[in-house]
Amino acid sequence: MRVRKLQQDVRTDKVEPALECTEGTAVLDRRILLSGAVKNYLYAESRFVLERLPESIRDQMLTTDRPVGLLWKAERLETFREIVEQAVEPCVAIAHYFDLPVTAPFVSRTYLVHHRNKPLGKITEKWPLSYFTRAP
Q1: How high is the mean pLDDT of the chain?
Q2: What predicted TM-score, i.e. pTM, was given to this entire model?
Q3: What angle is formed at CA 45 by the lines to CA 40 and CA 47, rounded to 5 degrees?
Q4: What are the structural domain ranges in the chain?
């Protein structure tokens, strides 16, 4: 698996109540695809409070394409994930990454990642529903 960054910005102009941060707090916004050799498997949007990330993880997130889960594993970062939303719905803006029609349903989940009793980030992951069906 590899990460393909579609967009990455450090922002200080957005308030994110779920992350318990205010305007002026540096937040990393990312959109990525997790891909295999032939196809894309997952689309994800994430927001991370940069000052709450260990420095080594923060630096690698900004400069490499390593998946965040592997960075956390390598650093043995203890986290707790709280699912806050889940849905099945069309995702017009990303269907083309999966060579699907805009009406194709996607499964999504949004979760908060907590570290040291504070929200570290918010991640929304999306997969085509067809990935969960078996061929006859």
Answers
A1: 91
A2: 0.90
A3: 150
A4: 2-132
